[in-house]
Design brief:
The protein is of the alpha+beta class. The protein is built from 5 helices and 8 strands. It has a 5-stranded antiparallel sheet, with helices on one face. Strands 5-6-7 form a 3-stranded antiparallel sheet, sandwiched between helices. Strand 6 and strand 7 form a beta hairpin. Helix 1 crosses helix 3 and helix 2 packs antiparallel against helix 3. The radius of gyration is 29 Å and the shape is elongated.
């Protein structure tokens, strides 16, 4: 089966690619969650103390109100912007020249053919694919953490996005199973039947004598 796709690389494509690069980054997701959650907690505390000010409650505290406001701003700034800034800058530098360029893809079980508007052709292999990610608009084929193809899920002219995902899943699953099988074969196994029990050290003898006395 030959899968064909035409995708125009846009700013939205670049933004989606930037997000997809962190889909499997557990450390990134963990710290982003921590910062955003902390920011939301401080924001709720700030709102609570603001309500005390509005209602002129005796328990109002201007220091805590300011502290919670600053803390909420700092944590949300880190979690929602600062953590993504360097990643966005890196991907912008790599892919900004591709914005507006139309790419044509022809994909089978062995290769991925990529042709741009200038008729330049790259022939890539599934063996070099690191992982495949997806969102509601695109399918991302990663060859490294930064080298990626982005295919619009609406741009398929032959077969469909589901066919591509099924193909990718089958290829990557087979490759993973093959690696696991090879790893098992490479493990050195000791055949206990081949151990020579006739070889007994002095330490073994002394240990047996000790056990007998007990």
């Amino acid at each position: 089966m030959l899968i064909k796709n035409t995708t125009v690389f846009t700013k939205e494509t670049l933004e989606g690619l930037n997000r997809a690069s962190n889909f499997t980054n557990e450390k990134y997701k963990k710290f982003k969650l921590i910062y955003n959650l902390a920011g939301l907690i401080f924001l709720m505390l700030f709102v609570r103390y603001m309500v005390l000010f509005v209602t002129n409650d005796d328990s109002k505290d201007i220091f805590l109100t300011v502290f919670y406001a600053v803390a909420a701003a700092v944590f949300l700034f880190i979690g929602m912007y600062l953590m993504d800034r360097d990643n966005k800058r890196r991907f912008n530098n790599l892919y900004k020249n591709m914005i507006g360029v139309e790419f044509n893809y022809e994909i089978d079980s062995d290769t991925i053919k990529v042709e741009d508007a200038d008729k330049d052709v790259d022939l890539l292999k599934w063996d070099d694919v690191l992982r495949v990610e997806k969102d509601s608009d695109y399918i991302y084929i990663f060859f490294s953490n930064e080298d990626c193809l982005s295919l619009s899920r609406k741009g398929f002219t032959s077969a469909s996005d589901k066919d591509l995902l099924e193909l990718a899943n089958a290829i990557l699953s087979t490759r993973t199973e093959a690696k696991e099988t090879k790893a098992k074969k490479d493990v050195i196994k000791i055949n206990e039947d081949s151990i020579d029990d006739s070889y007994v050290t002095q330490l073994d003898i002394e240990n047996e004598d000790h056990q007998a006395k007990l």
